[in-house]
Give the backbone structure.
Amino acid sequence: MNRRDLLTGAATSLCAVGLSPLTAAEPTDWKRLAEDVRAEMAWAWDLYRLHAWGKDEIKPISATTSTFPIKGHHLGLSLIEALDTLWVMGLDSRFAEGIDWVKAEADFNVDGEVSVFETSIRLVGGLLSAHHACGDPVLLTKARDLADRLLPAFDTPTGLPFRFINLKTGAVRDAETNPAEIGTFLPEWGTLSRLTGDPRYAQTAKRAVTALFARRSKIDLLAVRIDARTGQWLDRRATIGSYADSYYEYLWDSWQLLGDAECRHMYQVCTAAILRHQQDRRNNHLWIADVDFETGQIVGTEQDELASFYGGLLAQGGDAHVGAALTESWAALQDRFGVLPEAYDYASGAPTAVTNALRPELADAAFNLWLLDRNPRWREIGRTHFLAMKRWNKAPYGYTDLADVTADPKRQADHCPGYWWSEQMKYYYLLFADTPRFDYRHNYLTTEGNVLLGLRREAARNA
């Protein structure tokens, strides 16, 4: 079962929620829009090259830099995250200069503490997707070296990892963790095991996923804080937003990419419980409420922007009707504010955090829905997302966060997160371009937007 197998049922479900079926003529010149995305990526990369080369993140207003994930030390985060996006877009000379930097300069033998989760999805994943694009063995070697430095975090009685680790000493910290930071490893680490022949990476990641699933409540829900040493829950709130989101995503993804039927089963169990207990319809819009993980009682109506990815995941997993309705709720919110606020209370109708950290999640959902049925509605949502970003987030030296999406004009911050290079720019381009460099039928993108399946090297060679 893959995205193509869900096509017929998805199209039927989308019509049922009032979306227009696929039509022969579309008013937008999508290829021209794709070229606009490509040009913006090249422009931003050239400014990064000039003002922040090899640094983790550029500040697009001041042309200064910031570090992530190690305080005070750069690992080349944005550069590594951008690589497969550059390749997909055919920005080959820029891709080559980025690869040259990684091979010569990327070094993870650093006496500094990192988030195990963030480092894996961003840097290990970025190196693996760049390796998928060009096949250079040095990239695989560096990905393996970094994963080896993260492995000791999983050495706990439960198999649930500590949140932080020192890349040089292996010292770990913070056992109070969450589903996202426990279960967002298997696609990258399973790929690493496949490419290296070393089963430890996949086995370690899978053990953590199943150990958490085994601790679900009697109604099959997971809370958001747990002790990695004891396996005891530290709160009762179940959510599909931050601290939980990518756990559910990677259950499905591990089936999609690795063919892990046990992960598909865990996804189905968790999703059935979420849809049974957490759906909440208000004013003709569908939301996924936060609930008590043992009773299913609603405990909060605040939504964080990260949760807007979930409609795409639901459609991938076979619940296209619900996924489409949820994505339309977020699209309506986008239409209202222009750019989604970081948090929103659907009961009061008011934003609870007016910032936006240059987030890609709604574009991600639109892309995943479009992969399933090619309905132009999802392209339209992606187009709105891109054009709003161009209007409000563009700064003198790149694209930046927003400090207030409700201000008129919207007020900018001064920070471009590393995921911007890997996620929405890739989603936009793939959504609009129909590029021969990408296999639109058989593919896989990680939670960070890294392509681990579906890049067509022969198309690049023949270009």
Remarks:
- Confidence is low (pLDDT under 50) at residues 1-26.
- The radius of gyration is 21 Å.
- The first helix runs from residue 7 to 16.
- The chain has 18 helices and 21 strands.
